[in-house]
Structures are given as structure tokens and as C-alpha cells.
């Protein structure tokens, strides 16, 4: 063994054990090898190759245009860049239209990228799909509350679980997805009191985003965390750096220096 044996990659069993111990789980997105290496070295437990890459990397208005091939290309890059974090790849809009299609899509993701798990947006409608994937040995993260792939049906991005009917629906979805075999569940923009209640009611970890501090873990789009964006992040994201300002300053210096360092270079004298 070498002096510096690389630390083994975190497994779904490790994540389950963290929930058992009550230890918080830290998850961030990454979309390329460099960012994956950095967030991995900084100690995240799980990396999500989010379909938010549609917004953050590809410049789309929503996540709907993202393809399975897009997800596979970026997930393979994240795998190459990372060493320790458990890797989860989002299943994009249109890739999980029925259990068989979802299985075929997820098999491609696992075969072609080397990630450990997939994440699927949706509640009761996705229960048979989660069961099917789990029956085939695939590790699945569920995702309820604000599900951005349903933005047009939901009529925008807003908090979920505010009224009793919506809260009861979310409780039921969380129970059913745990029973279907999901090993974790993302709660996005679920009212904090309800998210805490759902967290206490489940054995699998809840991973919150915009859902308060009392989930078993937290996830965030890495660009929102480090201020690497040109439009304001969702209000739940509290940026801890202003990387956009650092980039603009460095590039501005470079442009200025490049133009200041030299006088004009004369063109060759034409001889014909
Ligand atoms: N940069 C980025 N961060 C994300 O968290 C993210 C993406 N992109 N793209 C895909 C989805 C879309 N998400 C979103 C987008 C908007 C809001 C939003 O506007 N939320 C409102 C709060 C709604 C309310 O309180 O009623 C906000 O004010 O931030 C939330 C999640 C989360 N995902
Ligand atoms: C915001 C997280 C949960 C996500 O699904 C994504 O980044 O695509
Ligand atoms: Mg997503």
C-alpha cells in the first residue's frame, strides 16, 4: 500500500449509517471535473450532477431541455474529477416517462458514467418507477416538493406544504417513496416545520434545499454557494463567496494589461 492510500468512496450504506447516527449529510452539485475535484477535496459527502446544469451551464431558462446525453457527459466528467463523495446523477425530463424507460435510462447512466445513484423528481406517480429501479439493484434518491421539471404544471417556483392538503400529500409521498426503496429523499422548498416532521418520520435521510435546517442533510447548487452566477440565486441560497466578482476583476486586469503592455505593431510593408 502506498503512503497515501486514497480514501474509499462513500457508499449508500455510509449515508444510511450517518442518518442512523443523526450525523448531518452535506451535498452539493458539480457539473465538471474541476469543480467536482474541489468540492470533493473540501469534504462533501455526496455530489449531485444536477439537471440544474441546464440553467447554470447550458444557459436554458428551465431544466426541461436537458437530455440524457447531457447528463451522461457531465456525470462522467464529475466521476473523473472526484474521489470520495458518493455520486448521484439527476434523471432529466423525459427520461423516466414509464418504469421500463426509466430503467433503460438509469442503466445507461450507471454503465456510461460510473456514478453510484440516480435521482428522480416526483411523488406518488414515481413510486412504481422507483420500485422497478430498486428491484434491478439501482440506488435511487427521490425528490418531492418543488420539482423544477414540473414548473409549467405547478405554475412557477414556490414553497410547498403551506396548506393541510398539500402537507398531507407530501407526508404520503415521502412514506411511499421510502417504502418503494429510495435510500434518500430531497425535499425542495418544503415549509421548514413540515420538512422537520417528515425527517423525523423517515428512516432514510431527507436532504433539504430551501426547507429549513432540520433535514437530515442539505443540498445546494454550488454556483449559488460560491456566487458564481450572473443572475440572483433563489432566496434560500446564502452565498459564501463572490466568485463572479473575482472572475470579473481578474479578467478586467488581464484585458487592461494586455492592451497597455505594448504599443502598436506596424503592418508589414507590401512589396508587390
Ligand atoms: N442556480 C440554480 N439554483 C437552484 O437552486 C436551481 C437552479 N439553478 N435550477 C433548477 C432549479 C430551479 N430551482 C429554483 C428556482 C427558483 C426558485 C425560486 O424562485 N424560489 C423563490 C421562493 C418561492 C417562494 O418563497 O414563494 C425565491 O424567491 O427564491 C426556487 C428554486 C432550484 N434549482
Ligand atoms: C437543486 C437540486 C436538488 C437539483 O435537483 C439540481 O441541482 O438539479
Ligand atoms: Mg435537479
TrEMBL record:
<dbReference type="GO" id="GO:0005737">
    <property type="term" value="C:cytoplasm"/>
</dbReference>
<dbReference type="GO" id="GO:0015940">
    <property type="term" value="P:pantothenate biosynthetic process"/>
</dbReference>
<comment type="similarity">
    <text>Belongs to the PanB family.</text>
</comment>
<feature type="binding site">
    <location>
        <position position="51"/>
    </location>
    <ligand>
        <name>Mg(2+)</name>
    </ligand>
</feature>
<keyword id="KW-0808">Transferase</keyword>
<feature type="binding site">
    <location>
        <begin position="51"/>
        <end position="52"/>
    </location>
    <ligand>
        <name>3-methyl-2-oxobutanoate</name>
    </ligand>
</feature>
<protein>
    <recommendedName>
        <fullName>3-methyl-2-oxobutanoate hydroxymethyltransferase</fullName>
        <ecNumber>2.1.2.11</ecNumber>
    </recommendedName>
</protein>
<feature type="binding site">
    <location>
        <position position="90"/>
    </location>
    <ligand>
        <name>3-methyl-2-oxobutanoate</name>
    </ligand>
</feature>
<dbReference type="GO" id="GO:0000287">
    <property type="term" value="F:magnesium ion binding"/>
</dbReference>
<comment type="function">
    <text>Catalyzes the reversible reaction in which hydroxymethyl group from 5,10-methylenetetrahydrofolate is transferred onto alpha-ketoisovalerate to form ketopantoate.</text>
</comment>
<keyword id="KW-0963">Cytoplasm</keyword>
<keyword id="KW-0479">Metal-binding</keyword>
<dbReference type="Pfam" id="PF02548">
    <property type="entry name" value="Pantoate_transf"/>
</dbReference>
<dbReference type="InterPro" id="IPR040442">
    <property type="entry name" value="Pyrv_kinase-like_dom_sf"/>
</dbReference>
<comment type="subunit">
    <text>Homodecamer; pentamer of dimers.</text>
</comment>
<feature type="binding site">
    <location>
        <position position="121"/>
    </location>
    <ligand>
        <name>Mg(2+)</name>
    </ligand>
</feature>
<feature type="active site" description="Proton acceptor">
    <location>
        <position position="188"/>
    </location>
</feature>
<dbReference type="InterPro" id="IPR015813">
    <property type="entry name" value="Pyrv/PenolPyrv_kinase-like_dom"/>
</dbReference>
<dbReference type="GO" id="GO:0003864">
    <property type="term" value="F:3-methyl-2-oxobutanoate hydroxymethyltransferase activity"/>
</dbReference>
<comment type="pathway">
    <text>Cofactor biosynthesis; (R)-pantothenate biosynthesis; (R)-pantoate from 3-methyl-2-oxobutanoate: step 1/2.</text>
</comment>
<keyword id="KW-0460">Magnesium</keyword>
<dbReference type="InterPro" id="IPR003700">
    <property type="entry name" value="Pantoate_hydroxy_MeTrfase"/>
</dbReference>
<keyword id="KW-0566">Pantothenate biosynthesis</keyword>
<feature type="binding site">
    <location>
        <position position="90"/>
    </location>
    <ligand>
        <name>Mg(2+)</name>
    </ligand>
</feature>
<feature type="binding site">
    <location>
        <position position="119"/>
    </location>
    <ligand>
        <name>3-methyl-2-oxobutanoate</name>
    </ligand>
</feature>
